[in-house]
Amino acid sequence: MKKIQDKDPLKLRNSPGSGKVYTLLVISLALFAAGIALFLISFFSESGKFNRGYYANIYTWNRERLADRMSSVEISFKIMPTLDDLRNRDQFPMEHRSSANEVDQQQVQWNEFFNYKQSYFWYNNTVKNFPQFHYEETQEDSNVSETFCVHLWWNLPRSEEKTFGLHHDVFGQPDCENSAQHTSYKWKANDPTTGQNFKLWKKVNLNLECSQESLTCKLECSQLGGVVGKDGQCHAYDIVDRICLTLDIMLSEDRRSEELYSNGGCYDGHVAHYQRAQPDHLYKLDYVPVEVRSQNDPYVVWAQSNYKINEDTSKLQMTSYVLLIAAFFFGLLTCVSYQSSKAQSSSESKSLNF
């Protein structure tokens, strides 16, 4: 403070009230610096990124009336290949939902998260769609999941669709990696050849190498949820626990109707979400939920963060706003005091001249 007064950047030397002006100036600058620092910390935090993505999607969701547009269509799907002829139907209609499911409501750590109009499609009867997975400690290291493919169709409600019951392929679906010639399960000759690909389980290297004699290392591997393979590497398996696909609703080229385009999945473009499999556990995969959502559904922001909401920094952000407002207030006081000091100094100079 003394150094600033000595340098006298405002040229108030010997002016009445100069000490007060510099005091207010220092307070204003300190508050401004603290406010900017807290704002930047909040802005670049994981919570800040999450909030920006969430509210950006909320804005688009409401502006483009995506909840109503999603509810105005019908969605059906098929997962290929299948294990049983009874499951090898042409397609399965999905249920449209306008409220969050109980599991998500219990899992979300933000009470106001679902305070927007819900609109998505859901299905979970995957009995005999998938093989069982038994994760045993004696599991072969080469256990690899078959690549499955999920294809989507859409349709206008039957009351509005002149071509009764006609379903259209969702545009932009990639090629299925598998085919009828390269699978141990059932494909029909007329099955779609496009759709989003996923595996039911995947091997995860836990970056821990053990000798066969090291019980301590094997115990450490077990605590990580893994087992030591024949190659001495500690590894685990992640097993699918939900499937979520995203769509983009766009106007057709003639701008007379809407068309649905595939936009990948809810998990950074991927459609499958995984959980860590536990050794000596049988996973039947009979009721894996399958969801279809708009790519601008705020839910997708949560899904992309692995269904976790990072530590809330909103209080930090509010504090930064308070500090910046206070800095602005003290800045005004500084300006008023400066003008007052200059006016008083000018008045005294005129008095001395007389």
From TrEMBL:
Q: Where are the membrane-spanning stretches?
A: 21-44, 318-338
Q: Which UniProt keywords apply?
A: Membrane, Transmembrane, Transmembrane helix
Name listed for the protein in its UniProt record: Uncharacterized protein
Q: Name its species.
A: Stylonychia lemnae
